[in-house]
Design goal:
By secondary structure, this protein is mainly α. 56% of the residues lie in helices and 3% in strands. It has 10 helices and 2 strands; from the N terminus they run ααααββαααααα. A two-stranded antiparallel sheet has the order 1-2.
Length: 239
């Protein structure tokens, strides 16, 4: 009876191989710069953030000349942003459902993030959810109303924050596709975010910036941290 040769076996598809090895991105994802850029710029989230950022930047430009105050505000937002994304990731995205009077208290944003951890190569859950974008205009409207005496500086701050938000989307997207620019900064950010997804979800909270992790000491050497076993099931870590 002839023995079966390896070449006689059906080779697994890219999707099947990805399921067997969760760290392996499926071949259906963008694998070169052109495909990566086309996918990113065609996504509603990237388009919405770019549109909001452009709109507020143009409004600021039409409101008067720029000054040292604008530079100070831009630098302050830049310094704050790594802590902003660290806190959002820890407090909001990894929120654990709680029981209150026999009812489970949960929110759609952490639900979508748990789906993202369960299927990290699924681009449907990589980008900021649309219901969050729906809050941009009312939230910025309230901010402008409160800060109207300093309207120009407020517009500068909003535009810079949105530009950093667009950069956040870009870096997070890079961490979930096979292609990455040959730039050390992006490669380091991608590597650390993948540690968060495939090593231990309790570390490496920063996405586009790593300063928050360095300050709060949540970016240890990867060899010092054991695999949690719950990166794909955030519910399991709260049981």
């Amino acid at each position: 009876m002839p023995t079966e040769r390896p070449t006689d076996r059906a080779m697994p598809t890219a999707e099947e191989a990805a399921r067997r090895n969760p760290m392996r991105p499926p071949d259906s994802l963008p694998r070169d710069a052109g495909a990566a850029l086309r996918t990113f710029v065609s996504h509603p989230s990237a388009l919405l953030i770019a549109a909001f950022a452009s709109g507020f930047a143009v409004w600021r430009g039409l409101s008067g000349p720029f000054g040292w105050g604008d530079i100070a505000v831009a630098l302050a937002i830049l310094a704050y942003f790594p802590f902003n994304e660290w806190l959002i990731h820890v407090v909001m995205l990894h929120y654990r459902p709680r029981k209150l009077f026999g009812r489970t208290i949960d929110f759609y944003l952490p639900v979508t993030h748990r789906r993202h951890h369960a299927a990290p190569w699924n681009l449907e859950w990589v980008f900021i959810p649309r219901h969050i974008h729906a809050l941009v205009l009312p939230v910025t409207g309230v901010l402008l109303w409160l800060l109207w005496p300093w309207k120009e500086l407020a517009l500068t701050g909003i535009a810079v924050y949105l530009l950093l938000g667009l950069h956040y989307e870009w870096v997070h997207y890079l961490a979930h596709i096979p292609w990455c620019p040959r730039i050390g900064y992006y490669q380091r950010r991608v590597r650390e975010h993948r540690y968060h997804h495939f090593r231990n979800e309790n570390y490496w909270w920063g996405v586009s910036m790593g300063l928050g992790d360095r300050v709060f000491r949540t970016a240890p050497k990867v060899e010092d941290i054991a695999r949690s076993g719950t990166t794909a099931d955030l519910h399991a870590s709260s049981r």
